[in-house]
Design goal:
single chain, about 425 residues, alpha/beta, eight-stranded mixed sheet, 8 strands, about 60% helix, elongated
């Protein structure tokens, strides 16, 4: 079966190479201006580079659109009329609502649609990573063919029949998770300090926060913008997160300990119920992965970002452990460090006391509170341009450590996953 990839960016190239290595014939195309560059790069790897998507669509039995979510309608509209009769069509966007809308609007009726979503970035081989496969419009026979093609990548395949369910879960595992880490990055930027130089961020779970934040900012802004703004479930969940954070912050500055504890304990008992299959991250490993050159004496931290996430899950009635079927490394790490905090009685008590009474951390919490609502407003208004600009501002602040952060976080993910 001939596989064709329309869009040879980082993910498109990764999958082209991966399918060739799995024994498939692969062709692909990107912008005509990149034709010579891609031909030189990919043809030695046995990938046929064509001039445009029309040529790919005409000759391919299995077509994958690897383009940004915000551009999917335009690209599918351009090449849909050249789709080979009876072809299977897929997309690699992280949010499926606009993708399925484009497929239904533009593709011929004889087209079979079995789409997918790789829950990893281009730095990772698909082998062993999670791959969601969504059957949207396909006969049993065709679906099995498509599934066999995906299985050749040796990914951990999660099958779904409803793209809406995919987007609902991904709103939590990716959009809100990314927004939480992006808020930390913006807060540190606005405060004008690097967290690894601050004793309040010298603990194991702080290392995870810092490295995951740097990992996110090391990638391209459009990856996260589409996830947050084009997913209809994401805006609702981001709003819940911002409201949860605001409720807790108001109680903190009023030093209303009774109500604050009531909310935190209710969230703890719901999210980390004894029936949960806990992740149990190793604190000794987390402590190894510090970017600091100094041996700081650790100061207490309110961990407002984690308190807010757990309280938001409680308010939404979301069991994050159910969403691990669509886990990404940042989501698993965020759930893991939240679990570590809430299941460690002494640490949770220190966090609560610090949040309510330690004025030395209150300025940092104010910066985080402000950043959360900046990001929530941008996402709520559907402002793709503003999202990218806000992202790039924080990315520029951390520019000198982004590569270190990505490399170190990759090693940390491997160690904690063992």
């Amino acid at each position: 079966m001939q596989i064709g990839i329309i869009g040879l960016g980082d993910m498109g190239k990764l999958y082209a190479v991966s399918f060739v290595n799995a024994g498939h014939q692969v062709c692909g195309a990107d912008m005509p201006s990149r034709f010579e560059e891609l031909k030189k790069e990919l043809e030695p790897k046995h990938i046929e580079v064509l001039i445009d998507g029309h040529e790919v669509a005409r000759k391919s039995d299995f077509i994958i659109y690897c383009v940004e979510a915000e551009k999917i309608d335009e690209v599918v509209a351009t090449f849909a009329r050249s789709t080979k009769f009876g072809a299977i069509v897929s997309g690699q966007t992280s949010v499926k609502h606009p993708e399925i809308a484009a497929f239904e609007k533009h593709l011929p009726e004889d087209t079979q649609i079995v789409t997918c979503h790789s829950l990893h970035g281009p730095a990772f081989s698909p082998e062993g990573q999670t791959l969601v496969v969504v059957r949207h419009r396909a006969t049993n026979e065709v679906y099995q063919k498509a599934l066999n093609i995906y299985k050749s990548l040796k990914s951990n395949i999660i099958e779904m029949d409803d793209y809406k369910e995919h987007d609902r879960i991904v709103a939590d595992t990716q959009a809100v998770t990314h927004m939480g880490f992006e808020s930390m990055g913006s807060a540190w930027k606005n405060a004008g300090f690097f967290p690894w130089d601050n004793p309040a961020y010298a603990g194991g779970i702080d290392n995870v926060k810092i490295l995951t934040t740097l990992r996110i900012f090391s990638y391209k802004s459009h990856i996260y913008a589409g996830l947050a703004i084009l997913n209809p479930y994401a805006q609702k969940q981001v709003k819940y997160y911002a409201q949860a954070e605001s409720e807790l912050y108001k109680l903190m500055i009023c030093e209303n300990e009774t109500e604050f504890r009531q909310k935190i304990y209710a969230a703890r008992d719901f999210v980390f119920h004894e029936s949960r299959n806990l992740l149990l991250l190793d604190d000794n490993i987390m402590k190894e992965f510090s970017l600091s050159d100094a041996n700081h004496k650790q100061k207490p931290n309110s961990h407002l970002s984690l308190l807010s996430m757990v309280y938001a899950w409680y308010k939404m009635g979301v069991n994050p452990y159910d969403n691990l079927i669509c886990q990404t490394p940042p989501f698993k790490l965020r759930l893991g460090i939240a679990e570590y905090l809430f299941k460690n009685e002494a640490m949770l008590e220190e966090s609560i006391h610090t949040a309510l009474y330690d004025k030395s951390i209150r300025g940092d919490d104010l910066e985080f509170h402000t950043a959360v609502h900046e990001w929530a407003s941008i996402i709520g208004y559907g402002d793709l341009k503003g999202y990218k600009e806000h992202f790039e501002a924080a990315k520029a602040f951390f520019a000198n450590r982004l590569n270190d952060g990505r490399d170190l976080s990759g090693e940390m993910i491997k160690r904690l996953g063992k």
